[in-house]
């Protein structure tokens, strides 16, 4: 597939990685049919900042808050709030996309057990 091929009713754009880079995890095809349509929320976390309530009250339109991550660092991929890997932001046509770097926390084998 390439970035123009779409899956899951047009919601997800997938670019295949080379076969040697593919992780040895359970594929979507081997998930039980009833589990394939369970919705999950996928988010990318740029970073976070811990501030006081007083600092929060003084934030305005021109405020800049430093985050705990460095510029250019991979972003954290989270599924339903749980970290599963890291990614880079890419441009896919007129939209932003993500290029997966690793999926350390994604273990679909546990779902099939």
TrEMBL record:
Record localization: Cell membrane
Key words of the record: Cell membrane, Cell projection, Chemotaxis, Cilium, Flagellar rotation, Flagellum, Membrane
Pfam families linked to this entry: FliMN_C
InterPro entries: FliN-like_C, FliN/MopA/SpaO, FliN_T3SS_HrcQb, SpoA-like_sf
Signal sequence segment: none
SUPFAM superfamilies in the cross-refs: Surface presentation of antigens (SPOA)
Name this polypeptide is given: Flagellar motor switch protein FliN
Source organism (scientific name): Massilia horti
Lineage: Bacteria, Pseudomonadati, Pseudomonadota, Betaproteobacteria, Burkholderiales
